[in-house]
Amino acid sequence: MDKKFIYFFGEGQAEGDASDEMIRLLGNKGAQLQGMTKIGLPVPPGFTITTDVCDYYFEHDGQLPEGLVEQVRANISRLEQVTGYRFVDIEQDPLLVSARSGAAVSMPGMMETILNIGLSDKCVDAYIERHGNKEQPKKFILDCQRRLYEMFGQNVYGIEREKFRKIFDGFKEEAGIQEETLLTSSHLQTIVTKYKQLYKENGKELPQDPLQQLTDAVKAVEESAMGEKARNYRKAEGLPEKVGTGVNIQTMVYGNENITDCGTGVGFTRDPSTGINNRQNPYGEFLLGGQGEDVVSGSRNVFSISHMKQSVPQAYDELMKVCDILEQRIKRVQDYEFTVWRGKLYMLQTRNGKLTGRANVRSSHDMVREGLIDVRDAVLRVVPENFEQLLHKMIDYEAMKCDGVQLDEVVINRGGAGVAASPGGGVGKAVFDVKTALEYKERGEPVILCRLETNPADYPGMIVSEAIATARGGKTSHAAVVARNKGIPCVVGTGVDIDEESKRITYQNNKDETVTINEGDYISVDGSAGRILNYKASLTEPSPDDPDLQDFLQLLYPIAKMRVYANANDSGEAARALQFGAEGIGLARTEYMFLEDKLEGENRQLAIQSWILAEEEEVVKLKALERLEQMQKRDFLEMYSVMQDKPIIIRLLDYPLHELLSGAKAHLDELSEATKLNQEHLKQRIDGYHETNPMLGHRSVRLGITHPEIYRVQVRAILSAAEEFNNSTDKKYLTPHIEIPLVCLVNEVKNMEQLVGEEAEKLGFSRGGYSSKGDNRYLLGIMYELSGASFEADSLAQVSDFGSFGTNDLTQTTMGWSREDGSATFMPRYVGQGIVGEDPFITIDKDGPVAKAMAHAVLLARAAKPDYEFGICGEHAADPASLEVCYGVGLSNVSPAPNQVPIAWLRSAQLSLTKEYGNMLNEYAVKASTSFSKSIGK
Ligand code: PEP
Ligand code: MG
Asked: CB within 6 Å of ligand 1 — which residues?
């Protein structure tokens, strides 16, 4: 027997079904038609030609496989039997069919539909005669005929759609007719004659043999699967080069027969932008007297589906039932097409609806509430990008399209350059320095700060910006880290010519013209896609209290094994982190607290800079330190009052001193007054702090050892604020977590243990455990940011109470790649040549050295202290792929920026449902011990 190329469906019987295997074989549309038929939904009978035929067609240079035409014939006969109509019939109304493409994955660019196949000119004449030349039937059959000519001409002969539209619209205009249902049969006759003329001009003729029409239509569908548009789409979407399509041949039902009880419509079982299931006013459109594409083509005025209640009430009721059945069976929001013919409903298609992030989150959760799916399904079907839309203002690309603006026309950083450093969209006037940013802001004008790269002196300008754009830098550069923590959209490493001096951006647009953007011109930044746009975009509005988001988070908390903290440097950020569900603060970077004034006239930068520059001027120094202690204590108290008894990990000063001095030369007069040193002297001192390699230089714990007074001040501020907080409460007692950055050696920690211990003792705090009434405790932890620390993790764990991976520095120091410059210099080539799969500052490679450094550290530390709490506070804590590594090495908590907390909850929950917690530790341990055994011959 010939291979089976065709699967029939009709009258409750179907040779196929909607299983995954059938979706592969028949394409999604075909398999769903089979599935709907099988469960008794009203589907016009038909058959699906398998995707194997398409594969054959391409392997054999446009030939259909032997036996296919016979199988088509046999299935047409079967259709004739089932429907009672005949394919070639001038005696009675003929059987007409549609042909539609449908691959396993949706593929725009493929041929969509040819309707009314089988309608020969003779059939039309006979039909008119049989119906007594009456206007209504005549008009109907001519409308079918003109549609066949249009679709066949376009899809089989490649005659441009525009040419048909020109004839049709031109005629309507001439006849002074707006609504196409008002065309008379004689109008339609003229149009068909003009179409025939158009065919002739193209050297074509519509085949009069219905089977020939059908075969040509099938070939046109097969051909379109390999057409340029479909191939380009597959390439852009990363789909395989060849994806075959199924061809669906289905008995016609006629929504265009009249405008009283016939029509066509499309709809979604739930609103695809909100996810709401509103059965009073279902999402979708219906058109009386329409066929095929009329609803979506925009050429006719359509009505909401609820209007069917009046015109075709039975069909409406049935449609609502069908929606429920489809969702119960497929358990996804469905996007469907239907026709109503003589008051009866026919389903033509169903597929999973493309939903906005919000709609996916909301509908998934609603389906749990309705008992359609379980929590596991809901958690696994939401993707991090869905959350992003709820968490940030986003560029409204739809609105941009409506304004007739093409993305490609307005993107400044073309060719894929640009790291999406902090998600969300911002719109404002381009400014190129902090002073101007602040001046604009003062006047109430929104700004976007554009810099080559940023440094701490830019901080005041950064935090008033709607978005930040830099030419250089990667995902862990200064701009990226600050922006993410503040929830400000940011794109870095764009390679764009940002001229800070002339205050302008110059770029080549998509027409290769040079375009200049000057200070004050509106631009937009898409920090989620990594783009700068020369365009004043509109933004969509998010809210942290968003009920869809908050409700969904409730599903995640009980499942997630890795708990989620947040990086927050002040009480505002801490409050935002809590709103998004953080259970603690995994990193408070205290250096940021020296950069931003909280009260009028504080001048924190001046205080920290005068402490540094005063050097041996003890009185000045002490005064500066005293001020710093007061400010920090106030900051911590504010944070404690937000976080209450939740853990807060406060890291002692990490910046190299010269970074804290950036911008100092701009206010030497103030510094001179504060330090009593002359400006020349101050300049020399500032220069004296210059280091060739500051990232590996005089910073962090090293600073604490050489300048213990600043660490003592910080420890006192942390503990005395905690004491004050604990004295003021009788319920929730706080246990401060003090953290030392960038340690490598046990002796460094021992030094810090002593320093912290001495200050703690003075304030009556003891180490270890948790505070309770009248018993103040603190914990001392360390950051693992050097691979040296990973090797020492067993000893380091002995002297510390908890650890946290600073994977920004850990990546930098393990790989020896600069976190500030790497992403913009050699990284594109490294990624391009496949030396690394992804920029390691964005994603930790699960088989790469950073993941191994982490696994090694966790293994050693937990061997020494089984309950040792290990977290991560590097920027990878919000990266979905890196979170898999964190979960794989069994981290206790992850700490991303506040706005990214929900994404970390989602990934943690998803991993908890699908993977074994700590699975990478076993693998790493087994591998390491096997190779050790081998090398020592055991
Ligand atoms: C890190 O290095 O990952 C980290 C969190 O510290 P910072 O980014 O402040 O250096
Ligand atoms: Mg670090």
From this structure: 481, 587, 589, 654, 785, 806-809, 873-874
Cβ neighbourhood burial of 730 (10 Å; 0-12, 13-18, 19+): exposed
What is the C-alpha to C-alpha distance for residues 587 and 628, in angstroms, rounded to an integer?
Answer: 20
* 3-class secondary-structure state, position 13: strand
Q: What is the SS3 assignment for 813?
A: helix
Distance CA 916, CA 39 (A): 38
Give the model's confidence band at 296: pLDDT under 50 very low, under 70 low, under 90 confident, else very high. Answer: low
Both tokens assigned to 654: 């990490």
Looking at residue 471, its amino acid is A
Q: How far apart are CA 19 and CA 33, in angstroms?
A: 12
Q: What is the mean pLDDT of the chain?
A: 92
Residue pair 495/475 in contact (Cβ under 8 Å)? The answer is no
Residues annotated catalytic, as ranges: 478, 873
Phi then psi dihedrals of residue 60, to 5 deg: -120, 35
Packed helices 807-815 and 849-864: angle between N→C axes, nearest 10 degrees: 120
Q: How big is the CA angle at 843 (ends 841 and 847), to the nearest 5 degrees?
A: 115
Instruction: List, edge to edge, every strand of the sheet that includes 497-499.
Output: 497-499, 504-508, 514-518
d(CA 224, CA 245): 9
**Residue with tokens 């199988």, as numbered in its chain:** 71
In whole angstroms, give the CA distance from residue 101 to residue 111. Answer: 6
Q: Ligand 1 pocket check: which of 476, 743, 886 to mutate, most ligand atoms within 8 Å of Cβ?
A: 476
**SS3 label, residue 337:** strand
What whole-number distance in Å separates Cα of residue 666 and Cα of residue 214?
79
Q: Encode pLDDT of 516-565 as tens digits.
A: 999 999 999 999 889 999 999 999 877 778 899 999 999 999 999 999 99
* Residues, Cβ < 5 Å to ion ligand 2: 785, 806, 809
> C-alpha distances in angstroms, 211 versus 207, 252, 393, 624?
9, 15, 55, 93
348-374 burial, b if ≥16 CB within 10 A, otherwise e?
bbbbebebbbbbbbbbbbbbbeeebbe
User: Residue 49: helix, strand or coil by DSSP?
Assistant: strand
Reported pTM: 0.84
Between CA 770 and CA 103 the distance in angstroms is: 60
The C-alpha atoms of residue 47 and residue 7 are separated, in whole angstroms, by 5
C-alpha pair distances (Å), 365 with each of 295, 544, 911: 31, 18, 19
Q: Average pLDDT in the 162-169 region? A: 92
